[in-house]
Write a structure and sequence with these properties.
Shape: globular
Number of strands: 11
Order of helices and strands: HEEEEEEHEEEEE
CATH topology: Lipocalin
Strand content: over 45%
Largest sheet: 8 strands, antiparallel, barrel
CATH class: Mainly Beta
Radius of gyration: 18 Å
């Protein structure tokens, strides 16, 4: 298939399939190991223009209390005012402000809002493929990550360690493994 035909085939509106996608994070704990977690409830949609990526856009809304690090006590602490203050700020959101083609994928810049604070972030996504599933849905896949400083969003809690350093790293890697289903063709 030619590049133009492929671009025409992929261009359209999409919705993230949360049952086949993962929104996760990694943070260093006690300066020696990494803790991985994810958000289990989210929704997102957008328009992907393979031929003119700058015409693409997306939005993502995460239910903050769906945080899951496989430890109930840690998850409760993360939900508290020490970290995300989820009672006051129940959602985390991302709205793209720009999309550009890069070597093997796309660079998406947008506004990430956590705890009522909005900051620009950039995520490089690798295009992982397209398929038609057994239900005749056209799917498109992307994987990406970026590292942010959690304190930029007021997620400040920490504890000093006796041997030096801190309990939770300021740097957090955000991870995105996305499968999206086309909801309409190019317009």
């Amino acid at each position: 298939m030619s590049t133009t035909a492929l671009a025409s085939t992929l261009t359209g509106s999409y919705a993230i399939d949360p049952t086949h996608s993962r929104i996760g994070f990694v943070a260093r704990h006690a300066m020696v190991t990494k803790v991985r977690g994810s958000f289990n409830e989210f929704e997102g949609s957008g328009h992907f223009d393979a031929e003119n990526p700058t015409d693409s856009h997306l939005q993502l809304t995460i239910q903050a209390d769906s945080i899951d690090t496989r430890n109930a006590d840690r998850d409760a602490h993360l939900r508290s005012n020490d970290f995300f203050d989820m009672e006051t700020y129940p959602q985390i959101s991302f709205v793209s402000t720009g999309v550009e083609a890069i070597d093997d994928g796309y660079r998406v810049t947008g506004d990430l809002t956590i705890k009522g604070v909005t900051k620009a972030v950039t995520v490089d996504f690798e295009y992982t493929g397209t398929a038609v599933d057994p239900y005749d849905n056209t799917r498109i896949g992307f994987e990406g990550s970026t590292t942010v400083n959690r304190k930029d969003w007021g997620v400040n809690w920490n504890a000093a360690l006796e041997a030096g350093g801190v309990l939770v790293s300021e740097k957090v890697t955000l991870e995105f493994d996305v499968s999206a289903i086309r909801t309409s063709d190019a317009t």
